[in-house]
Design a protein that fits this description.
The protein is α/β, with parallel strands linked by helices and 366 residues long. It has 16 helices and 10 strands. A 6-stranded mixed β-sheet has the order 1-2-10-7-8-9. It has a 4-stranded parallel β-sheet with strand order 5-4-3-6. Helix 9 packs across helix 11 and helix 12 crosses helix 13. The structure holds pyridoxal-5'-phosphate (PLP). The site of pyridoxal-5'-phosphate has 18 residues, from helix 9. Belongs to the threonine synthase family. Keywords: Amino-acid biosynthesis, Lyase, Pyridoxal phosphate, Threonine biosynthesis. It catalyses: O-phospho-L-homoserine + H2O = L-threonine + phosphate. Catalyzes the gamma-elimination of phosphate from L-phosphohomoserine and the beta-addition of water to produce L-threonine.
């Protein structure tokens, strides 16, 4: 790897390539483009663990704390660094939103042109705004995410345009660094890892990362619980979903590009892939926010799945006793503020008078 484009190569200023580049399979021409992604907090959630039955340790890996607000930045630094080092000037992706914002930001950093193709409707405002703010050319097609993905794959085969969807192997190389960070923080792998599954790049990356880590330093392997939304659950149903529907727009995907690998990760790890309802996702989003962690709806799916498994007795508290569970919260709540406006009460409106304020806060009137 050649020198860093925009950061001094010191541990104080380091993204995932600087920290874990030696463990990543990237070509020699790779030239790092970074926004100092990664190194996200692993937040203990003792109150939620207690509510779910207690006796185990629960942590949230809060990936919403990455530079553009989602885990996509880990993979994007790798994919853009490779394309940049190869001399490519244009990158393209299909996106439900977060990939678009991330690709746009890293392309801007490297002064490359970014084109993002989004499906009609249902892309959260905060994500679209991000892609536009970072200067990407945003094109909305009259079709689904899956249609958008087919188009970008074809155009990247015809022209010198780099595809930065998670079909790009370097995306996975970057995303697997989250597994290394979890092991670094806990001292060994957790017993369970819960995470949402959309196009299935992330579950594939975590499993790669944990296996590689285990091969190098015997850190152990987690069982993986992958969670889809009921209206977009091709891996649970066993067939593609033509018209996926869910409030969790980041996982509104009917034909996961890495579906086979996701099923393998679940099976090889002794875990499983399940589905939860939108109501369960939104309830868990509120529950997490009630403890100070605001995530976008898709990001609450992993924990909603854990809660459901425990409720239905498919995972037993006795099995979890003394164990450690990490839930990956993939994106920040700020990405999708409308969902809160739609599902939560509007603020109380009052005249600008002390008596009205006292009555509203203290329940007394003078
Ligand atoms: C992309 C994304 C997902 C889904 O990840 P996949 O790799 O497509 O399975 C989940 N949550 C958020 C916030 C995302 O941006």
């Amino acid at each position: 790897m050649r020198g860093f484009l925009n950061t001094p190569d010191s541990s104080l200023y380091s993204g995932v390539l600087a920290r874990y580049g030696a463990w990543m399979d990237l070509p020699a021409h790779t030239r790092p483009v970074t926004l100092l992604e990664g190194n996200t907090p692993l937040i203990p959630m003792p109150r939620l663990a207690q509510e779910l039955g207690g006796g185990f340790e629960l942590f949230v890996k809060f990936e919403g704390m990455n530079p553009t607000g989602s885990f996509k930045d880990r993979g994007m630094t790798a994919a853009i660094s490779e394309a940049f080092g190869r001399g490519v000037h244009t990158v393209i992706c299909a996106s439900t939103g977060n990939t678009a914002a991330s690709a746009a930001a890293y392309a801007a950093r490297a002064q490359m042109r970014a084109i993002v193709i989004i499906p009609e409707g249902k892309v959260a405002a905060g994500k679209l705004a991000g892609a536009v703010a970072y200067g990407a050319q945003v094109i909305q097609i009259q079709g689904s995410f899956d249609d958008a993905l087919s188009l970008v794959v074809e155009i990247s085969e015809r022209h010198p345009i780099a595809l930065v969807n998670s079909l790009n192997p370097y995306r996975l190389e970057g995303q697997k660094t989250a597994a290394f960070e979890i092991v670094d923080a806990l001292g060994s792998a957790p017993d369970w890892l819960c995470l949402p599954v959309g196009n299935a790049g992330n579950i594939t990356s975590y499993w790669m990362g944990f296996r590689q880590d285990h091969a190098r330093r015997s850190s152990g392997l987690p069982r993986i619980l992958g969670v889809q939304a009921e209206g977009a659950a091709p891996l649970v149903l066993g067939h593609p979903v033509e018209h996926p529907e869910t409030v969790a727009t980041a996982i509104r995907i009917g034909k996961p590009a890495r579906g086979e690998q996701a099923l393998e990760a679940a099976e090889q790890s002794g875990g499983r892939i399940i589905a939860v309802s939108d109501a369960e996702i939104l309830a868990m989003q509120r529950r997490l926010a009630g403890e100070g962690v605001w995530v976008e709806p898709a990001s609450a799916a992993g924990l909603a799945g854990l809660a459901r498994q425990l409720r239905e007795g498919k995972m037993r508290l006795s099995e979890l006793r003394g164990r450690r569970v990490v839930a990956v919260c993939t994106g920040h709540g700020l990405k999708d503020p409308e969902i809160i406006a739609h599902n939560m009460p509007a603020p109380l409106r009052l005249p600008a008078r002390m008596d009205a304020l006292e009555e509203a806060i203290l329940g007394v009137s003078r």
